[in-house]
Structures are given as structure tokens and as C-alpha cells.
Amino acid sequence: MPDNKKYDSETLSQQRKAREEFLELKRMQSGETVSEESVPEKPQTFKEKTSNFWYYYRWPIFGILFVAIIIVICVKQCVSKINYDLSVTVYTSTPVSDDDCKAIGSYFEEYGDDINGDGEVHIKVNNCSYADGGNPQIILANNTKLQAIIAAEYDAILFITDDKTREYIQNINSSVSLLEGEGVVLNEDFYNKCNVDDYLKLPENLRISRRIVSNTSMQNNKEAKQCYELAYKILDKISQ
Hints:
Elements: H1 2-29, H2 46-80, E1 86-91, H3 98-109, E2 123-127, H4 136-152, E3 156-161, H5 163-170, E4 184-185, H6 188-194, E5 207-210, H7 222-238
Parallel strand pairs: 1-2, 1-3
Antiparallel strand pairs: 3-5, 4-5
């Protein structure tokens, strides 16, 4: 009797296994079965989970970090950007050093006003000086820079020149002068405070002139008018 029970149990087991194999075969034929190789193994440990996350999401993470870095750089540049109230262009036929130009900016800031409302007075100095008889390409580049400043920068109202370069500016437009009057001759106080470079000394007999705004494209520009009025105050103060 026990042998019969054992035989019946084995028979049932074989039938069950055959039925399961038959059903599995049917599922495979109908495309319902996914092979074990295609099913990703679920990570069990923290290290495995971390590795799996990094494998699938590393490129989105890199993208987010890149965008965040760009945003930080842009914000930093905006915060640290200097808003200038006025610009002075140094255009002489004798080279002027960057150190002297920096000192020139500080010199005129003492006489300037805060017209853009940021609570500080900042005056930019554009260095377009060159060596007369020097490299023609450098002279051409500085002349081109000067003309670009005149054409595009509304705050470029004051120009420091010698006799030769002042004549060049006045003749840029053959129909009208660009600078007012004869300008103001820069005095000893200017040279004492701005001659900081031991190698390159400031040229002698420099004068500073104000650009003409009336009857130009800047006439109706509010910011240009404010710069023009500030330039007048500065010239009035240094000429006393």
C-alpha cells in the first residue's frame, strides 16, 4: 500500500511538472515570457543601489551640475559688475600705461557724482593711446577702437588728447566737429596724481574736451544727457 502511494505521488509530480512546462511553452510562444537575462537584478545592498542609481542617472546629474555652475558664474558676474557713471577716453600719440589710466580714473572720480544710483562713483578709462611712428597695425587698431567708442558708447563724453590726436577726432566727421571748443588744459595737480608709472610718463600739454551731444543721435538719450552734464561739472571743477 505505501508503494502505491509513492507511485501515485511521483505520477502526480510528473504530471504537474509536465503541465507547468506545457504552460511555460505556451507563454513563450505567445511572447509573454521575459528571459531572466533581460530582467535587471534588483540591488540588495546600499553599495549596489548606489552603483545602480549612478549607472542610470549619471548623465542627468552631470547636466544639472553644468547648468548650476553656469547660473553661479552668471550671478557672480552680475553682482561684481561695475556700473560706470562716465567714461574718459585717452587718445594720445604717445603711449599711456594702464597704471596711469587707472590713476586717471581715480582722479576724475574725486570730481564726479553718482548718476546711476548705485551709491558709488565709477569712471571708466578707455586707453586708445599709441606710439606715433610705431607699428601701423597697432595705430590702426586703436583708431578703430576710438571710432567704435564714439559710435556706440553714450557715456564716452570726455576725451584726453594732445594736439595731433585732437585734430584727428575733429576731422572724423568732415561736416561737423565732435569736440567742444578748445578743451581744458590739464594742470599740475593732474600730473602729480596720475603720473604713477616710472617707465612711461604721461605726455605733456594734454587737454581734456567734452564731446558735442546736441544735434547728434545721443541728443534724446537720457543717460547721455546725464553724462554730458556730469562732464560739464568735472571740467568746471578741474579748471578752477
